[in-house]
Write a structure and sequence with these properties.
184 residues; alpha+beta; seven-stranded mixed beta sheet; 7 strands; globular; Acetyl-transferase
Amino acid sequence: MSIWKGDRIRLRSIEPSDWETFHALSEDTETARFYDKILIPTSKEKMKKWCEEMSCAPHDNDEIVLVIETLDGQMAGLMDIFDCDRRYGIFKYGIGIHKNFQRKGYASMAVRLLLRYYFFELRYQKVNVHIYSFNEPSIELHRRLGFVQEGCLRNMAFTKGGFHDELVFGLLRSEFEMLHHPKP
């Protein structure tokens, strides 16, 4: 049994061999827009080098990029954990699920696995996520998981010719524990 494995997915580090999937994803404009932003095209060599570097990168201050992988070995998405503040027990993450894997429960499984680790192994007490106002699937996901909208940062993202708000959602460890009954 692994803390990083659920009944349909596992969370794992990036491997050098993941470069082809990442390169293909970098060309998916709509997924990139939801996750963060549309980037300038990246060469295959640059993507290979990035995956190699990420596979060996230290996990400084609990910050890491994790692959969401189905149990049969398909990359379903990514999680980026960042802005980890051990003093206050707060961290942030972003999640992106590839088109063919959306609306199948992989994102909620990945979030629950991640939160169980950060709340019950690393002693974090709160998580925040920032979601663009046009990303309805992510807003719905986080509300279903018990996140509370705590704020709205106006005109924070520019895409498709217009500015969009960034919504801030938060979840406390105590709320997660009440809603999802994890066994620490």
